[in-house]
Amino acid sequence: MSKNLLEVRGLETVFGGEHGDVAAVRDVSLTVSRGEIVGLVGESGSGKSVTGLSIMGLIGHPGRVTKGEIMLHGEDLRRLPTTALRGLRGNRIAMIFQDPMMTLNPVLRIDTQMIEAITAHDAKVDRTTARARCRDALGIVGIPSPEERLKAYPHQFSGGMRQRVTIAIAMLNSPDLIIADEPTTALDVTIQSQILAEMQKLCRERGTALIWITHDLTVIAALTQRVYVMYAGSVVEEGLLDDVLDRPLHPYTYGLIRSIPSDNAPGKRLFQIPGMAPPIDRMPKGCRFHPRCPRVQEDCLREPSLDASGPNRAVRCHHPIAEDKALFEGERA
User: What's the whole-model pTM score?
Assistant: First the structure.
């Protein structure tokens, strides 16, 4: 039996449009083992959130998953009946959304929503025990006076406080897998650090697997053990965190790392990757990064595959970087 808790193989998710289906996610494969924290990183529109929603079975019309397997504990979630999949969500698998109001009901008190998240999956838990678990979860994510705040409604919380509530809800049932879609973006750095520490503790002590979706490489560096880099709907590089950050193989990964403000010399213009990511309905032929790539050659008009490049490394590039050096115009200035 595979040691991986989750295995995604060849995932493709499309959305219908005026001119037919377009793939927002194509040929995405990833694995997560028990207790492991994996980063899914890329700029806006790279397909990170769609990948997370696809794993959860939350892609709604006009989108649909058309290819691939999503194996949890060796069982393909794509083959499960809707009722069975609904029973897994919030219990064995959970997702934390970037917008907390996608999770919270504005007309119900916080205690009502949190207790329901427990009793919906375990009817044997009495209300007193469930309430105590809810109070403790709020305390873990840094909400002061958690007993009193349980009586509040979502509109009585700030945006950052609402996000902490949704993180607490995701942690309530100690799920096997949590998919976190940039949940700390709206939080100040002190609370963000606290949340990251608690998520690491949850994974370490309870064996929960975590996929952390973000565009922020500094969060990835502080939290994850392995990282998948996405661009234009596909994984372009994967590997152990230190390997990817210290020795990037794909020019896009290199560009992302160089774009971190702290990596730029004082007094100089901040580095940026030239051009823009392509829209999903107008993808370039061949390698999707080649219009922005400083290493582009004629064979880049042929689509590359994600190939192994040493132990625990893979890259989707015909001409991966052999050594760490300046690639883009203006870096040497």
Answer: 0.91
